[in-house]
Amino acid sequence: MKAFMNEDFLLSTNTAKELYHNFAEKMPIIDYHCHISPREIAEDRRFENITQVWLGGDHYKWRQMRSNGVEEYYITGTAPDREKFQKWAETLEMAIGNPLYHWSHLELQRYFGYSGVLKGDTAQEVWEFCNSKLKEAFMSARNLIKQSNVKLLCTTDDPVDDLKWHKRIKEDKSFDVQVLPTWRPDRILNIERPDYPEYLKELSKASGEEIQSFQNLKKAITKRLQYFVSMGCCISDHGFDFMVYIPAKESEIERIFSARLEGKEILAEDIAKFKTACMLFLAEKYEELRWVMQIHFGCKRNNNRKMYKNLGADTGFDCIGDIASGTALADFLNAVNDRKNLPKTILYSLNPKDNEMIGSMIGCFQNSDAAGKIQHGSAWWFNDNKTGMINQMTSLANLGLLGNFIGMLTDSRSFLSYPRHEYFRRILCDLIGEWVENGEYPRDMEILEKIVKGISYNNAVQYLGFQI
Hints:
Elements: H1 14-24, E1 29-31, H2 38-42, H3 50-55, H4 59-67, H5 81-92, H6 99-112, H7 123-134, H8 141-147, E2 150-154, H9 164-171, E3 178-180, H10 186-189, H11 196-207, H12 214-230, E4 235-239, H13 250-261, H14 268-289, E5 292-297, E6 299-300, H15 305-311, E7 319-320, H16 326-339, E8 344-349, H17 355-362, E9 374-376, H18 386-399, H19 419-437, H20 445-464
Parallel strand pairs: 1-2, 2-3, 4-5, 5-8, 8-9
Antiparallel strand pairs: 6-7
């Protein structure tokens, strides 16, 4: 029997161990999609206790605590931090097979040097041990990033954001990790939202463009894009419940936009037409700027209305969506490719049944612009577990070129999330090692080193064009 989470955790063959320890383990990290606060980086936040750094804003953990029958008072409520931590420790005992069990113990080992097991009976010990470590200077937000061997990370930023915290980080020469913004324009597209007119006022103020028409909106977007470029942005991100593609004439989009500004009801088909027009425009701009476009879809959000009303979005009440997006996605990519050149694009679906759809689709739009120009993004959210990662990478290997994959991202709000890259790399090396030892790929360590280091780090640097 193997020891619990030792140096060969998840590595089941000798080849896997060699690939991981010789090639993957020491590679730096590019986190090209996360939700870390740039303000907390700029201010080099310190954390008073393990609950603050571990449970604050982590809806992954909140969901599991609810599944363990924990009262909301101990999750998002006003319970003392020590009591919240106790409830999490008791929940973790039951999380056999869950990636949170692995991530939590990797984080305890890597950042705190704690090699024991967190459970209800050890919660006090771990609480005291970790809190004593958090008092040290090396446990500040910036130092946690540096400890993790992160060379560059991209936050997630709304087009109206003034990016002042990014400015402060950029001007501070004492911190040598690059922190770049990501353009996340969901609120521009979400014309159906009740607060849409108010958001347009914010966008008007930020851009200096009075928005009274769709043409005005495109001008405002262009100005904000240029501002993001000046701050080093080179990647966009879009979050959809499901993909839509219903093209319409410019005059019809103007009609829809005007009706919304006048407070009229917008039909579902008109919403889809507006979002299609916005995405076609944005994709063209991304190609002009040589940006990478990320598209996330397959999510059904805010399902528990009662809890959404109490706590708002991103609090643990989302799930996998089941509305088919393949046809609309293919038609959208084809339309962008017809109108101009399709930008580098990364596709993610929250529904794992879309793996093969994405794997077959990306092959339709690859060309000599870049190796793996259209990417099947890493296993996302509910899929970033051992099974989900193996399925995503196996599907990509079956239908495309796994060797050109740009690898893992954290998609996290926590400064302790970087061991997820280690988790991913161990699974990657075990998967490849199994193929080698099963005679499905030659034991050519020179090529295997190129593949493993590429997926771990090098491919993302080259693909995204980062200057490291």
